Automatic annotation (TrEMBL):
Membrane topology: Multi-pass membrane protein
Subcellular location: Cell membrane
Keywords: Cell membrane, Membrane, Transmembrane, Transmembrane helix, Transport
Transmembrane segments: 12-34, 82-102, 111-135, 147-166, 187-212, 245-266
Family of the protein in this entry: Belongs to the binding-protein-dependent transport system permease family.
Pfam families on file: BPD_transp_1
Protein name, per record: Carbohydrate ABC transporter permease
Keyword Cytoplasm among record annotations: no
Amino acid sequence: MFKAMTLKRMSGMDWFLFIVLLLGSILMLVPFLWMLTTSVKVQEDVFAYPPKWLPDPIVWSNYKRAWTMFPMGTAYFNSFKIAVLVTIGTLWSCSMAGYAFAKMEFKGKKLWFLLLLATMMIPAQVTMIPTFLWFKEISWLNTHWPLIIPPILTNAFGVFLLRQFISSIPNELEDAGRMDGLNPWRIYWSVVLPNCRPALAALGVFTFMYHWNNFLGPLIYLNTAEKYTLPLIIASFQGLYSTDWTLLMSASCITLAPVLLVYLFAQRYFIEGITLSGLKG
C-alpha cells in the first residue's frame, strides 16, 4: 500500500528519472547476463543468429574445463593474496596519513598535502619504465612484491578520501580521549578508526576490486605461470587464431564471484563512505 501511494505522488520528472535509471540498469546488466549464459553454452551457439539467450543444452562442464585447463587454483590464490594484502596495507597507511593531515598540526602541512595530491596528476605510464628498472636492480622482477609494496605506500587517492572523512569527525571526541589519558596513537586507534568505518569500507572495496582485476602490473613484472594472477590466466584463454568463448566466459564468471561478494557485504558502508567523504574539506 505504501509503495502504491509513493508511486501516485511521483511527478513527471520523477517518472522520467526512474525510466532513465531503469534503462541504464538494463544496459549495464545485459553484458553480464550474456557472459553468464555464454559460459554454459556449446561453442556453436555463441555466435548463432538470431542470438540464443537461453542455452540448450546447458553445459556446466565448461566451468570444470576452465578451472583445469590452466592453473586457475594457483592464480586464484595469487590474486587473493595480493588483493587482500594491498587492501589491508592501504587501509592502514592511508588512515594514518589521513589522520595526520586532518587532525594534526605540523610544519608544511598544507604544502605536503598539495604535493601528495599533485602525484595523482602524473600518468602511470610516465613512471612505468623507471619503476621497472628500479625493481630490476633490487631483484624484484617475477615476484609479487612490486604488486604489493608500492600500492600500499603510494595511494594518494586513499589518503585524500580518508582525510576528507576524518576532517568531519568532531574534535570533541579527540578532546574526550585526551582527557582520558589517551596518546595520539590510542586516539587514532580507539576514536578515529571506529568512526570512519564507512570511508574505510569504500576505500577497501575500491582497492580490492582494482588489484583483483589488475592486468597491466602482473603483465609487466611476472613471467612464470606459477606467479600469474587471474587476469593473466584469463588472457591465456584467447588463442592466436581462435578463442573458446565458452571457457573464457566461464573463467570470467569464476573471477567475478569474489568481487561481487565483497561489494554485496560492504555495499551499505561503501555508499555511505562515498556520500560523506566530500562533506567537509
